[in-house]
Specification:
- This protein is an alpha+beta fold.
- The protein has 2 domains: 118 residues, Rossmann fold, CATH 3.40.50; 122 residues, no CATH class.
- Helices cover 31% and strands 23% of the residues.
- It is built from 8 helices and 14 strands.
- Strands 5-6-7-10-13-14 form a 6-stranded antiparallel β-sheet, with no helix packed on it. Strands 2-1-3-4 form a 4-stranded parallel β-sheet, sandwiched between helices. A two-stranded antiparallel sheet has the order 8-9.
- Strand 13 and strand 14 form a beta hairpin.
- The longest helix is centred in the N-terminal third of the chain and has 19 residues.
- The N and C termini lie far apart (41 Å).
- The mean pLDDT is 93.
């Protein structure tokens, strides 16, 4: 069962109240936090916490899958940067003029655009690049050396394109027999583990938890992760966790179990 989700970023209560009623008629959940006339780090932290709570409520139902988007009226550079830090690459962002944020006469226009995009074939088609086994758009970006992929992800986040392009396949090689993806010597083999495997939740923050459950607006199983290996071994190499910290891989490890948000644990097969 698909559940639609809209996060209103930068909008005022007087706008969101009627928009929420209208979106509910289209089976769409809404996440919203009042700006109180101001934005900043605390605002986006609150929005992330509310988003995570809503995501967990939806995904607690076994057959539920999320398709979501950020509706943003934020135009100033500083808050745009904070918004991106909070929600990229978990969601895609639909931009609206700042003047829309409290203009109730624009409610129908905004709702119509949101519903249309969330139901469009082009928007939904991106899911096949996110889900296993291909999952090229679910790669943990901070540990992937592919400028083309990162540029394409930004284009998708900003809704400047709806399907991936930009020559990704020149840097991300699909291995034969569906064995995974190779990027400059590192192999990423996606799999959904069973209940006997722990969920690699390493860093404790709303932004990391949201980034572990969605990619470009599509929910991903909490048990999906990449088996990361290298022909020349991973020991001695350094990888980045979701919180930005860097961990050097010990000599005994021969692979990593890494979630889409880059949180990982070391492993050894032999």
């Amino acid at each position: 069962m698909i559940r639609r989700l809209v996060i209103f970023s930068g909008f005022e209560t007087k706008f969101v109240a009627p928009a929420k009623i209208s979106l509910k008629a289209h089976q769409t959940e809404v996440v919203f936090a009042s700006t109180g006339g101001q934005k900043g780090v605390e605002y986006f932290d609150t929005l992330l916490e509310l988003t995570l709570r809503t995501i967990n409520e939806i995904l607690s139902k076994n057959d539920a899958r999320i398709v979501g988007v950020i509706a943003s009226s934020i135009e100033d550079t500083n808050n745009r940067d904070l918004e991106t830090k909070a929600f990229f690459p978990a969601f895609r962002r639909m931009a609206f003029p700042a003047s829309f944020s409290k203009d109730t006469h624009r409610v129908n226009e905004v709702v119509s655009r949101l519903v249309s995009n969330l139901a469009s074939e082009e928007f939904l088609d991106t899911y096949k690049y996110v889900k296993p086994p291909s999952a090229v758009l679910s790669l943990p970006l901070s540990n992937v050396d592919s400028p083309r992929l990162k540029k394409a992800m930004i284009e998708l986040y900003e809704m400047r394109m709806l399907r991936p392009g930009g020559g990704i396949d020149k840097e991300v090689v699909r291995l034969r027999n569906g064995r995974g993806l190779r990027i400059k010597g590192l192999d990423f083999a996606g799999c959904i583990n069973n209940g006997s495997h722990p969920i690699r939740r390493v860093t404790d923050s709303s932004v990391c938890d949201v980034a572990a459950r969605l990619r470009l607006g599509f929910s991903v199983s909490s048990r999906f992760e990449f088996d990361v290996s290298c022909e020349h071994g991973v020991s001695g190499k350094s990888f980045r966790l979701c919180d930005g910290s860097i961990q050097k891989i010990p000599g005994w490890a021969d692979h990593l179990n890494m979630r889409i948000n880059s949180d990982f644990k070391c492993g050894r097969r032999t």
